[in-house]
Amino acid sequence: MPKSNGMNKIKGFMVSNIVPIVFIIVCMIGVAFSGSAPSIIMMDVISRFSRNAFLVISLIIPILTGLGLNFGIVLGAMAGQISLLIVCVAGMNGLSAVIAASALSVPLAVFLGWLTGKLLNNTKGSEMITSMILGFFASGVYQFLLLFVWGGIIPIDAPGIMLDSGIGVRSAVNLNNLKYAIDNIWKMDIFTAGIIFSLIFLIINAVKLLKRTDKTKVRTVVNIAVFAAIFVICFWASHADACKKMKALCQIPMVTFGLIALLCMFVPAFLKTKLGQDMRAVGQDMKVASVAGIDVDKTRIIATCISTVLASFGQIIFLQNLGNMSTYSAHENVGMFSAAALLIGGASVSKATVGQAIMGTILFHVLFNVSPMAGKNIFGSAELGEYFRVFIAYGIIAVTLALYAWKKTVQAREKNKVQ
Amino acid sequence: MNENTPVLSMQNIEKAYYGNKVLKGVSLEVMPGEIHAICGENGAGKSTLMNILFGMPVIHNTGGFSGTISMDGEQVSIKHPSDAMKLGIGMVHQEFMLIPGFSIAENIKLNREPRKNGLLSTIFGKKLQKLDEDKMKSDSRAALDKLGLDVDEDIPVAGLPVGYMQFIEIAREIDKENVKVLVFDEPTAVLTESEAASLLAAMKKLAAEGVGILFISHRLDEVIDAADKVTIMRDGTWITTLNKKDTTMEHIAELMVGRKIDLSQKEESAKIDTSKVALSIRNMKVAMPGEVVRGLDLDVYKGEILGLGGLAGQGKIGVANGLMGIYPTEGEIMVGDKKLTLNNPKASIEAKLSFVSEDRRGVGLIPDTSIEMNMVIPAIVNQNRFLKKFGFMSQYDADAIRKNAENYIKELDIRCTGPTQPVRRLSGGNQQKVCIARALLLQPDVLLISEPTRGIDVGAKSLVLDTVVKLNKEYGLTVIMTSSELAELRLICDRIAIVTGGKITDILKPDDSDAKFGMAMSGISGKDGE
Q: Tell me, what CATH number does B19's domain have?
């Protein structure tokens, strides 16, 4: 292989990251045409990011285990919602309510994840469509549970939550008692937060650099450079007059971001453990993994469970930020929008990283924010922009799936080629 | 431990799948440091025997087996591949059991990764121990060095030459600490000659260190080169075990093939008219997965029945599929004096080729549709027959279709309740006759018929074969019959071409000796000067 020069490297980078690059450009155009102030967009994106990142990252592990996009995270979202309702019925408030709901959702999500995993093991090869339909089916069970069993069979006395007849949960439940329970623990302006986070990551990477001396070194050095740059920019911006407005408006919920950062570190570390390695092996070739003695079915079930539990946490974080819950529809689009966000970040059905998840979440929500205004300014109609963003969400999933299928056929053809 | 205790001994192994006995009391002993070859045709029971040894789930999901397995003189029970691994049985698989996206070291250490404690394992337990990457690499390096393979253990397996992949598989087995018996399942099937030679050398080196080796191969020259002992199996029975020095390649080949049925041979091994070529194939390549054809040359003469034989996976099935344009094909093919347009089934049908597929249920028939429609659909689609025209519209000609079906039911003696019976309800032999009828309806010059007796009971087999012979004699139809059963090819064919490695190794007469057939199937050409 000829040594690739700089130009080729850039070209290779462009080709392998074409999806996020296109969307960065689309986002820039959107931002330019929306006419909103950058600080307003930033504020909105920060709150949406903190709401959604957890859900998007929860998709990564099933992808690497070969399950594709796990639309079954809808079940995790339901587990989160049910737990929230239970703590509200119990009259809990604030942070303790959120922690209790999270603790409660774990066994529920593990159970649902186990069922999902069992089902997906019986439908190998069509996990994505199965998990999607499973989401719709589970929706029915969920409605039965909350509309009929709650109050109808189990007597529940909670006037604000239950319908006036006493049977069934209201379609909109007010969660003001725990609104911002996590977000408001500790808030900082964006630049100070940037300084703190970049410092933490600088230290982590520096320790890594000192400990390891092999090939991962280049990566660590790149990481250090990136975080150093963020550090410098944030330091400058926090003192610059031009950024005063942004500093005032954009408040970072430090604990939420801290949780997301922890998850971001957990996923790659997890993949380097024995279980993570088993999952990657299963994801690449089930047959080989099983001959090597790995329990394929069990590994897949564990991956589904982890994903479902993470999604239930994600939904709790999401709802504590929103402050109210539309009981029967809040979970509906969780799978679809999270998948779209991940794919926009450059992930595929078989490969995904934390970086892609973060990048995708940011891009997806910038697009969400600017498209109505940009649509209005470009086409003279806000609705067109509205359509555009829905179109993007579904379109990107369709395109990625088609590309993936196409790539698979090409590979199969290459493999069978007569030498 | 006694010097004379076999490291592995399998006694009286019997196994039946759904009442069908595939192993009938096979016994085998392997001494430490011995290379023991197992030879046999496809279906002789070699793979089943190895699956039993390795505790594959397929064995235990179908009712287990009878007989005993002992290692170092002690009886053992192997219920799962992990049991086999614990006992020190290793397997180098025919198809590579490697994960392409993993590095060489990760593959060698697959599911046996050395681990160390970390933050996650202290919180979540043992399953989340960190992988000890440095130890993974150094162990892998040691195993690779033992085999003399100079390749960076850090690079991914995807993209490596196949020869390397085979060595990585072996490295994985010898990295296991207690390995006592190593099974090589046709390890050289995909290797080049020089790669195969270094593999055999590595095998001998391992044997010299005291590992017992079971070597399955159909390349008899390798068996003779490497093995100390040879066990021959045929039809699930143990035929004999020979010392290498007491035998020859020809002898093994003869024992392998054996005479299965009394050949009542075709009366006149009639002289074939070699002046008229019905089909000429030059440098044909077919990318059919599992049955790849790699540059095959063949002439088919008018009015003959040509048999295509050979072991499974060697490419014989690919020939007919390539001729019909079903799998991507290259090369130059002449039908009569016209060039055939490749990769276009319709063009093949127009060139008067007609195909009875080996995949009767998948490709050949539409199961829930009636016999009469199954017969005529290709003729309707390709030749616009059996249609009534109404201006620019057309409709099935139901009367003609019915009449045609009744004719063929009579002529081919199809046992059914009537032309409207769905073909799913028919027995295998009668289904096959419907396939033949629909192929004939296309009025072919050359009939390609693949595995015509697969999955058909014994009585019906001869009926199908009789039909083929009758068509050939009475209508002068040229037939290319592909079959895994050498016996039936020898029963009805004028000439038999043996396909090995995607090429013709030899064209034999039905009454040639068993040894010749055996040699041809193991890839050794009987032609002089080669």
A: 3.40.50.300
